[in-house]
Amino acid sequence: MCRSIKTLRPPYAEAVTEDDMRAAALQYVRKISGFRRPAAHNAEAFDKAIEAIAAATGELLASLEVRGGAIR
User: If I label 52, which of 14, 20, 32, 44 is the partner at 20 to 30 A Cα–Cα?
Assistant: First the structure.
């Protein structure tokens, strides 16, 4: 899938920023939509998807419990 999306949880990443989460969401939306840049009539849907995925990413990372370097 998106090989350039990096892992955003410890121990792979010490500090994850909003920009990191948004960049991962953008890559994901580009991959599944097939659009690098959507046409004007699809821009709103594209942007909403990026924001929703970035928010879900933040929620996931905040709720993960990492013990000994692995999620359990």
Answer: 14
Copy the structure tokens of residue 58. 């933040």
> DSSP secondary-structure letter at 70?
E
What is the rounded distance in angstroms from the CA atom of residue 11 to the CA atom of residue 70?
A: 8
Helix, strand, coil in percent for the chain, rounding step 5: 55, 5, 40
For residues 4, 19, 48, 43, the Cα torsion angle rounded to the nearest 10 degrees is: -70
Terminal-to-terminal C-alpha distance of the chain? 24
In which element (H, E) is residue 32 found? helix 18-33
- pLDDT attached to residue 72: 43
Report the phi/psi class of residue 43: left, alpha or beta, with left for phi > 0 and alpha for psi in -120 to 50. Answer: alpha
